[in-house]
Amino acid sequence: MELQGIMHGAGLVFIFLGIFTIIVAGLGLFRLPDLYLRASAVGTSAGLGVASIVLGALLMDFSWLNLLKALLAIIAQLLTSAVGSMAIARSGYLNNSRPAEITHTDDLIKTRRDSADSR
Amino acid sequence: MISDITLEIALILLGLGMLLAGVRAYLGPKITDRAVAADLIFFAIIGFIALIGLRSDFEALFDIILIATLLGFMAAISMARLGSGGRR
Amino acid sequence: MSSPASLASWPWRMVSFLLWYAKAFVLANVYVTLDVLRPKRRMRMSPAIIAVPAASASDTEWTLISCLITLTPGTLTLSISREHQILYVHGMFVDSREALVGEIQEMEDRMLRALRRSPGDLTRPTRLPDVVPGEETPGGEGR
Question: Structurally, how many domains does chain A consist of?
């Protein structure tokens, strides 16, 4: 009984940590100036946010089968969110989303065909 | 499993995050900004599924979460394709 | 090639890399979260897109390193050039080119040591090649 109480409390902490991360990423969508920085901010909730919500749900409803499924879900989420945000950022670059002004170095722009007339 | 009042607070907070992302998706100057916002909305939806599944003691909760993460990947990839006009 | 000793230490290297990566992952999350919440005048970010020379060789290694970089919040792989052995990385907190290059290469070194049974070739191109805009990539324009 004691152990269950602790796991319940820890589960709540993890769930609220995940929700907090999602809200911060939502704020980041407004506070950060360009696509790539926004993708970085959303990356926090893609990795840590979803993983800790799933972990919290697991702690509140624990069984060994659920542990296996939750681990699979977290691993799938981590790998796929990385590939997804890479694809979105790359398509943004191909779609001429220029990095914000504060970006001080841009090595990739040298490889563009239209680099002469941009900037 | 999870008390009503905690669930409500959690759902409202998640909804707030979702609203922020929704406004960005509405404003987003380019389609890729919208795609990033839609990604975040999707993570909030996974949170909703987890919370409501906990509340209703749903058997297949983790199966649904597993499928949902994989579906989100499909959505992100297709939005990226859409944003770049087919170029890779 | 791979001596029995290095084969025996393989699981340990794997586990220690995973622990190191988990720590780096959590720290990067904290940095990005703090910077989003900081008032605008005191935001510490200085984003940049840097060409990082890489030592990866096989498809698996290229895929994994770019996934791991993107998974760490604050750094994002935009493109890779396998023929020039370069990763194009967008970083959120880049004080200098060397800082980001060092960070990425440390991660890559650790990953390669964990992944390969024997460390093998860890050399990287030292000088950045003069990349010229290539031919139009296959796949065609706007379909």
Answer: 1
pTM above 0.80, yes or no: yes
Residues with pLDDT less than 70, chain C: 1-6, 118-122, 125-143
Q: Do B86 and C137 touch (CB under 8 A)?
A: no
The strand order across the sheet containing C48-53 reads C48-53, C86-91, C75-81
Q: Which chain C residues contact residue B87 at CB under 8 A?
A: 137, 139-142
Res C23: pLDDT: 92
Q: If 0-12 CB within 10 Å is exposed, 13-18 middle and 19+ buried, where does residue C16 land?
A: middle
Q: What is the pLDDT of residues C14-47, one digit of tens each?
A: 899 999 999 999 999 998 888 888 887 777 778 8
Asked if the structure places residue C139 within a domain, the reply is no
Is there a domain that residue C103 lies in? yes
Which residue from A40, A83, A109 is facing C32, i.e. has the nearest CB? Answer: A40
Question: Are residues B38 and B75 in contact, defined by beta-carbon separation less than 8 angstroms?
Answer: yes
CA dist., res. B15 & res. B41, Å (int): 9
**Would you call B14 and A22 a contact, using CB atoms and an 8 Å cutoff?**
yes
Which residues constitute the domain of residue A100? 2-116
Count of domains observed in chain C: 1
Residue C61 pLDDT: 87
Phi, psi at C42, each rounded to 5°: -100, 10
